Amino acid sequence: MSEALPLDHGHLQKLVTADLVRPDHLLGAHVVTENGVEGVRFGVWAPNAHHVSVVGDFNGYNGFDNPMQRLDFGFWGAFVPSARHGQRYKFRVTGPDGRTEDKMDPYGTFFEVRPATASIVWDQPFTWSDDGWMAHRSAGFDRPVSIYEVHLPSWARRDDGWFMNYRDLAHRLGEYVQFLGYTHVELLGVMEHPFDGSWGYQVTGYYAPTSRMGSPEDFKYLVNHLHSLGIGVILDWVPGHFPTDSAGLAKFDGTPLFEYADPRKGFHQDWNTYIFDYGRNEVVMFLIGSALKWLQDFHVDGLRVDAVASMLYLDFSRTEWIPNVHGGRENLEAIAFLKRLNEVVHHMAPGCMIVAEESTSFPGVTTPSPFGLGFDYKWAMGWMNDNLGYFEKDPLWRKHHHHALTFFNVYRTSENYVLAISHDEVVHLKKSMVMKMPGDWYAQRAGYRAFLALMWATPGKKLLFMGQEFAQPTEWNHDVSLPWHLADQPDHRGVLNLVRRLNGLYRTRPDWHVADTKEEGMLWVNADDVENSVYAFIRRDPVGGAWSVVVANLTPVYRDVYPVGVPQGGAYRLLLSTDDGEFGGFGTQQPDLTAREEGWHGQTHHLRLNLPPNSVLVLAPTGETIVSDDR
Questions:
Q1: Contact 176, 161 (CB under 8 A)
Q2: Which residues pair with 54 in a beta bridge?
Q3: Distance separating alpha carbons of residues 51 and 386, to the nearest angstrom
Q4: Alpha-carbon distances of 414 from 62, 411, 461, rounded to whole Å
Q5: What pLDDT shows up at residue 2?
Q6: Residue limits of the Glycosyl hydrolase family 13 catalytic domain (predicted)?
Q7: What is the CB-side half-sphere exposure of residue 246 using CA atoms within 13 A?
Q8: Of the candidates 479, 547, 463, 484, which has an alpha carbon nearest to the alpha carbon of residue 183?
């Protein structure tokens, strides 16, 4: 555990000048010994408060027993010899208007289970066993990155309906993710939050895993165990806004402090949340310190930064807004914060990945700062919208939208992309993924299998939300466990088998991941067969030379001996058919996989393939030597 920094002028000055990237070592509650006396030292930032005291189990919540001393630069401090590990506490803050409120510790590392709001003094050691993993973790630009997005409270529950402990989840989740072949999990709703229905996106504890599922050490056990299985851990992180709950950050010292004062800049009407004031160094350091806390202390391997677009634009989802100093719509302070965040994280936590959920065409999101924002990856929201829009259409009309599936190739190397089908796509009457597909139940599953195969075969890292791997027919419900009984039913098991096979191909075939972010990683063979809604492209490893051809038939029409150009002759083998019986298909056979010398589609040879309805085939030349880059 880190030793507490002294609450002196020098360290406080470093925080206000944005030179202290771990302010949690200075503020919050720290078990210390002062002048030979054991106790807890408390520190808090409340520059406009008239009075602050610390109340808790150690003084019967009496606000007169432990007043805090006003320090330099608007900070307050107190040493309480009677306080101990495990005791609850709050800061009692009297604002300039004379009103007094009890506040959660912004730097608290453990909290009561909601709806209670007290912070808990916490000072427990944890023994890690993942040194090897930590020494070699990587953002994975030329490696397979396949992410299973999980909401732990609803992934699985105890028999009595209560949340499972992090330690129990570690084994059950780890075994399942390892079986499916994912490289990472992404956890949403982990940081402490008061309202279950926010899914964890309205955070009150930026330095604490939610106590719903256990202690900080329980959460560390989860991360440590996943690392032992070769599985990385990414967390959703929300530096764009925070809830209006009076016990949290809102008007912390009786005035707008963590948030912008003007509601035209500091309040999200859509989400009923406050927006952080990125012009204050203390706020910027609070957020950067939170990021480093998770990456360094909790050994988390990456952060997915939520709602970046809402941070970048002053007019985001509002009619009244304040232009920047140049008269523009960009939030220059937020942009500077994001650049600083990524610079500090990449220096202090090398090998970690920072991913932006950014839905606009803002340039340079994954360009290193100072020229860009400095993220490692960006969610491919355009790819998601185009592909879902295409697959949701009746196949009769798909020919009129043929190039919705080819458009991503126009810009796919402009950023480093994650192809994400997240929780947002299976809620609020959007239907689950399989139920978005047109037709009867068989056609829906066939269409969904084709969608998944194209997603995995397309350049870019992968992310799929829980439940969609076994074709959950209902929308996600955060209040209950996934319908696990469906996963063993043949129709659903077939989709799960496909996801496992796709992860296996993605991880073991370098042509499917080495050049995810490079132009040479993909070559269109047939992008213009509008009438038949057939697509063909080659995935390539430009260094090792491995390649495979992907063919998609996206109508419910069987196409016999369809010609597909390939770059060399000889025999080919079928690596994958989404129509295979093990995936829930008919099992259409390919009578001849020998390339003919006649050129086709600009290639020197061609194959004649039987294309099942709503299917994807993947083929590779027989006899190729594959050296897997999966580490």
A1: no
A2: 91
A3: 55
A4: 58, 5, 14
A5: 63
A6: 149-500
A7: 8
A8: 463
Residue 184 confidence (pLDDT): 98
> Tell me, what's the pLDDT at 591?
87
The beta-strand segments (E) located in 211-262 are 232-237, 242-243
Q: Rounded CA gap, 93 and 237, in Å?
A: 27
Collapsing DSSP to helix, strand or coil, 321 comes out as coil
Rounded Cα–Cα distance for residues 407 and 414 (Å): 13
Beta strand 615-621 with 547-553 is: antiparallel
pLDDT score of 623: 83
Q: Are β-strands 461-465 and 146-151 bridged in parallel, bridged antiparallel, or unpaired?
A: parallel
- Contact status, residue 476 vs residue 465, Cβ threshold 8 Å: yes
DSSP for residue 529: E
Average pLDDT in the 254-261 region? 97
CA–CA distance from 185 to each of 173, 239, 354, 463 (Å)? 9, 20, 14, 9
Q: Kindly give the pairing relationship between strand 51-56 and strand 88-94.
A: antiparallel
The secondary structure element, H or E, covering residue 564 is strand 559-566
On whether the CB atoms of residues 518 and 540 are closer than 8 A, the answer is: no
Per-residue model confidence as pLDDT tens digits over 573-597: 999 999 999 999 999 999 899 999 9
Residue 332 one-letter amino acid = L
428: phi > 0 → left, psi -120 to 50 → alpha, else beta; which? left
Q: 630 catalytic, yes or no?
A: no
- What are the tens digits of pLDDT across the range 495-510? 999 999 999 999 999 9
Which tokens sit at 293?
């806390």
Q: Which two tokens stand for residue 626?
A: 């594959």
Q: Are 239 and 139 within 8 A, CB to CB?
A: no
Residue 126: what residue type? F
Please report, as a single letter, which amino acid is at residue 446. A
Identify the three-state secondary structure at position 12: helix
Q: Are 577 and 617 in contact (CB under 8 A)?
A: yes
Residue 628 has pLDDT above 80, yes or no: no
How far apart, in whole angstroms, are the C-alpha atoms of residue 119 and residue 113? 10
Burial label for 65, CB within 10 Å (0-12, 13-18, 19+), is: middle
Residue of 282, 306, 469, 579 marked catalytic: 306
CA distances, 362 to each of 108, 329, 345, 387, 415 (Å): 35, 12, 21, 21, 11
Residue 32 makes CB contacts below 8 A (sequence gap 6+) with: 4, 38, 39, 40, 41, 79
Which residue among 357, 469, 579, 580 is the active-site one?
Answer: 357
Compute CA distances 573 → 177, 224, 335, 620, 622, whole Å.
Answer: 28, 40, 49, 6, 6
Residue with tokens 């256990």, as numbered in its chain: 214
Rounded Cα–Cα distance for residues 248 and 40 (Å) = 21
Q: What was the pLDDT predicted at 630?
A: 52
Q: Can you say whether residue 36 is alpha, beta or left, with left for phi > 0 and alpha for psi between -120 and 50 degrees?
A: left
Helices (H), 198-245: 216-228
Q: Label residue 559 by pLDDT band (50, 70, 90).
A: very high
User: Is 357 an annotated catalytic residue?
Assistant: yes
Amino acid type, 605: H
Instruction: Look at residue 11 and tell me whether its pLDDT is greater than 70.
Output: yes
What's the angle, vertex CA 480, arms to CA 228 and CA 181, rounded to 5?
Answer: 30
| pLDDT in the model for residue 631 | 43
Q: Is the pLDDT of residue 437 over 70?
A: yes
Beta carbons of 188 and 198 less than 8 angstroms apart: no
Q: 135 Cβ partners below 8 Å, 6+ apart?
A: none
Mean pLDDT of 245-261: 97
